[in-house]
Write a structure and sequence with these properties.
about 575 residues; alpha/beta; Chitobiase, domain 2; six-stranded mixed beta sheet; 18 helices; 20 strands; globular
């Protein structure tokens, strides 16, 4: 993960004359930089421009050239080009001793733009800002029009507030091909997020190849149909759905993300949400539960399901062997293990599970969930990794780390802000992602034309107002345990990249300001900047939700929701 744990060590400075700079010039930068100072004149990018990067910034230079050369038609010559004072220069440097790892300084003046940082991550964020300053045409894949390329002379000093700036993408409920995942990585990189939490397994599908257990994808990656709309309507499409990522696919995703300074945090959900795995290997389930079918299919319904892993040592060994392959694919320090929404019904009804509860000295059937999480925590710690689990694992009695520890279990607080506060007060490090504020699959308005309206209204203003550090923790040591936040995009009702676009944007643009910027945010200012920023989304082909509501083809009259 880029940046430091918890809140960034840099205090947030005030924006200098924001109305005159941003609204007045129409820069429309999202997320908004910490400080902008306007100067006289313009930097003009021309066909003889030079891109000069130090060794540490070479990867960023390659990305910047890959963005700008197709859009401008200019080759961006390297520094070996014969010197000429008339040539405009873009200079990249990652050895600025006065700047942190994700902090950058961009100075644009007539004839030269310089981007400096303490690492290539900061240079990358500066390069994203430079691209934005060049205007929406800079996001095209080929040159359109003959207008001049220029940006105003200015100085931008910028740095993130949080070290964890994430987005969860659920590819288990509806599979997204590799190219769509790479496209999503580009989208969150544009917004200076640095975590992609990839939800890879669930009851409705297993999406990562595990060579030791081939049936996980041979069987578990496919279901015979999908539920249409909210589960309470009990309607199905009769259409098979599936797909999975080979291990080379995963390596490609991880490497692509790393080039853009994004860490991919995998999630393999256990011991609940394991219906696809049990369909592939029935012996993993509680086979002696009275009335339970001997063979299960991959789940076609949404919601919480009672089939969970049994508590046998052989099943725990299966879990460890799966994670052995997962850890080899994902270098992330943080590894998601789920631990959420795990009904203990089958453990209560299974004679063998009751015997295991006695053998393990557990207090109840529900304690099996805590046993699994504790075993995985020890397994991951022994391999230099850190367990990320949903806030239910706090209920399971998992021991929090020592108060002064920089390691140990990390909690994703999804049920409410209060659950995040409780986890921090117990000593856990916390990533805030409360469902009623940053679940981007929830409906965006009350209108009947919203596609599959589920959940409460979570509109642009509500996402923008989300504050990762709760008021109750301000001024306390526990505030430093808030690593940051992530928005979550669950895909029960998002069956393709176009649907993900609609759900995510522009709300993800607003969310980026909550994790990059300060607690003092101006929604009307964001709306003014979005008028420019949405032209960038247009150029990238992102099918975001318009302020007036869905376009006709973005609605889903065939699939009913269930608004709260």
């Amino acid at each position: 993960m880029g940046g430091s744990d918890g809140q960034a060590r840099y205090a947030r400075a005030a924006v200098t004359d924001p109305d005159a700079v941003d609204r007045g010039t129409g820069l429309g930068l999202v997320p908004r930089p910490v400080e902008i100072k306007r100067s006289d004149g313009w930097f003009k990018l021309t066909a003889d421009a030079v891109l000069d990067a130090d060794a540490g910034s070479a990867g960023v230079a390659a990305l910047l050239r890959g963005w700008l050369t197709p859009a401008t038609g200019f080759p961006l010559h390297d520094a070996s080009t014969p010197a000429d004072e008339a040539r405009p220069v873009i200079s990249l440097s990652c050895d600025a001793a006065d700047l942190g790892a994700e902090e950058y300084r961009l100075v644009a003046a007539p004839g030269r733009v310089s981007i400096e940082s303490g690492s290539d991550a900061g240079v990358f964020y500066g390069a994203q800002t430079l691209r934005a300053l060049l205007g929406p045409r800079a996001y095209r894949s080929a040159r359109v029009g003959d207008e001049a390329w220029r940006i105003p002379a200015l100085t931008i000093a910028d740095r993130p507030r949080f070290g964890w700036r994430g987005a969860l993408l659920d590819v288990a409920r509806h599979f997204l091909p590799v190219r769509d995942v790479l496209r999503f990585i580009d989208q969150i990189a544009l917004h200076k997020l640095n975590i992609l939490h990839l939800h890879l397994t669930d009851d409705q599908g297993w999406r990562v190849q595990i060579k030791r257990y081939p049936r996980l994808t041979e069987v578990g990656a496919w279901r015979r149909e999908s539920q249409i709309g909210d589960r309470r309507h009990d309607r199905f499409d009769g259409r098979p759905h599936g797909g999975y990522y080979t291990q080379d696919d995963i390596r490609e995703i991880v490497a692509y993300a790393a080039e853009r300074h994004i860490t991919v945090v995998p999630e393999i959900d256990v011991p609940g949400h394991t219906g696809a795995a049990i369909a592939a290997y029935p012996e993993l389930g509680n086979t002696d539960v009275p009335g339970r079918p001997a063979d299960l299919e991959v789940v076609t319904r949404w919601g919480i399901h009672e089939d969970v892993l049994n508590a046998e040592e052989s099943t725990l060994r299966f879990v460890f062997e799966v994670f052995d392959e997962v850890l080899a694919l994902f270098p992330s320090r943080y590894i998601g293990v789920g631990g959420d929404e795990c009904p203990p019904v089958q453990w209560e009804d299974s004679a063998r599970a009751r015997a295991r509860i006695a053998e393990l000295g557990l207090s109840s059937a529900d304690a099996i969930r805590g046993w699994y999480t504790a075993q995985l925590g020890e397994y991951l710690a022994a391999r230099g990794r850190t367990l990320f689990g949903w806030d239910e694992i706090c209920d399971a009695g998992i021991q929090p780390p020592a108060r002064d520890s920089a390691s140990g279990t990390v909690i994703g607080a999804w049920r409410s802000v209060d659950h995040g506060i409780a986890a921090a007060r117990a000593g856990y490090r916390v990533v805030m992602c409360p469902e009623d504020q940053v679940y981007l699959d929830w409906r965006q308005a009350d209108g009947p034309d919203e596609p599959i309206p589920v959940g409460k209204v979570t509109d642009l203003a509500r996402v923008h107002a989300f504050e990762p550090v709760p008021r109750d923790l301000l001024g306390t040591p526990e505030a430093g345990l808030i690593l940051g936040a992530q928005c979550n995009i669950w895909t029960e009702h998002l069956d393709a990249a176009r649907a993900v676009d609609y759900a995510a944007f522009p709300r993800l643009s607003a969310f980026s300001e909550t994790v990059w910027g300060g607690a003092d945010r101006d929604f009307e200012d964001l709306r003014a900047r979005l008028a420019v920023h949405e032209r960038r989304l247009d150029a990238l082909g992102i099918e975001y939700r318009r302020d007036a509501g869905p376009l006709p083809w973005q609605s889903r009259p065939d699939a009913l929701g269930w608004p709260r």
